[in-house]
Amino acid sequence: MTGFLPRTIAEAAQAIRDGSCSPLELTQTFIQRIRSLDDGINSFVLVDEAGAVDAARRLTDEARNGALRGPLHGIPLAIKDIIDVAGMATTANSHVTSRRLAEHDAPVVRQLRETGAVILGKVVTHEFAYAGPPADLPYGAARNPWDTRRDTGGSSSGSAAAVAAGLCLGALGTDTGGSIRNPVSYCGGVGIKPTWGLVDTSGIIPLAFSLDHCGPIASTVADCAIMLNAMANPDQGPGKDFTSALGQPARNGRIGVLRSFYDYEGGASDEMRAALDAAAETFRHLGCTTVDIQLPDIRDFVACGRIIVLSEAYALHFEDLEATPGRFGRWTRDRVMAGRLLSAKDYIQAQRVRHVLRAAVENAFAQCDVILTASALGQAPLLEEDGNDAYWQTRYPTVAFNLTGHPALAMTCGFSGDGLPLGMQIVGRLGAEPFLFGIAQAYETATAWPNRAPMR
Length: 456
What we know:
Layout: H1 9-18, H2 23-37, E1 44-47, H3 49-64, E2 76-80, H4 107-114, E3 118-123, H5 157-164, E4 170-175, H6 181-187, E5 190-193, E6 213-218, H7 221-231, E7 254-257, H8 270-285, E8 289-292, H9 298-323, H10 330-337, H11 344-364, E9 370-374, H12 391-394, H13 399-404, E10 408-415, E11 421-427, H14 433-446
Parallel strand pairs: 2-3, 2-4, 7-8, 7-9
Antiparallel strand pairs: 1-3, 4-6, 5-6, 5-10, 9-11, 10-11
Helix pairs in contact: 2-3, 7-14, 9-10, 9-11
């Protein structure tokens, strides 16, 4: 083994290309880190050491023969535990499905394997990607690598924690109301909820089928773009290169600052507001213009999202809830059972409102190229502070773009006085992920945030 510990996919890919590190050596390094560090973080549900090593050996032979599959060749990744990986349980961190063995890879996992990724194993999620982390779930809570007393956010909690701790180079997450962007905000790094439908969600246990997205979490913008190239459904834009705008200057970009999503009484912390103001100033230094934009009241987005999530989640789980409610964690049971109180009229009206809200966001792009707003309202709370009642408040800045389907990228925009990451989101036009990655990377390059990591 070389002892080489890359921070990014791009760095590891270069080492594999030039022969200074093999896929097998890289995989063994990350397996050893998981053994050494994950007891304190609890990010992994299952580590498939034998399967990962076997795959890495084959990929090492291919690399030696000059048959590299691309930038993910030999790169160790982790998979959120609501996504099927053949031969592994897809438990969704629930007693209801704890013995559910996947017969096939989900399409997104198959695509990653085909491009050379090594699957290390499955990482912790909130139960059914909805509720957590109470102590009555099978695998408990992932812990924040910056401070293990603190929450990771959810529901892609293990995905964000594993990437932040350097236990893998990237991970798959899912996002129905903010479940990629919320944990990335608390744990650091970068994650994107792509345009709805860009990534195939079959083979993934649904929460709310009309809001569910699957996307990558990694350490940098470029790494997310590399992963999305492999993950995107070929039917949704064959030949699109999501890395095509990386390295381009951001000058003349128009940044729409959406203050109403965080700058209200009881909203973002003072530190969070200051970090967002500083981010807007950084964009101005890069040659962008900023303009304040307005959208409908954030409470309209949250109420609409809540009705749709509860209605669709109850429709998916009602049989198990009625038959064996005690097998669900208490927070999941309490949240999803609220869906039985909603009527078809409520659901249809919410879908009508959704169309109005989507049109409002589309209209806002007449004034700007991307929208800048918060992806969380402050730093990661202590675990005992993140109770069931706080769920929808943490989704205030993010759920809007699940409703509208626009791509939304979360990344670090500063650190709190406690040394914890603070996160913002940049939202792009439908299908405009390459531009979104380009302008986000320009910001990333202009700051020192990517150079800070909790466990290196």
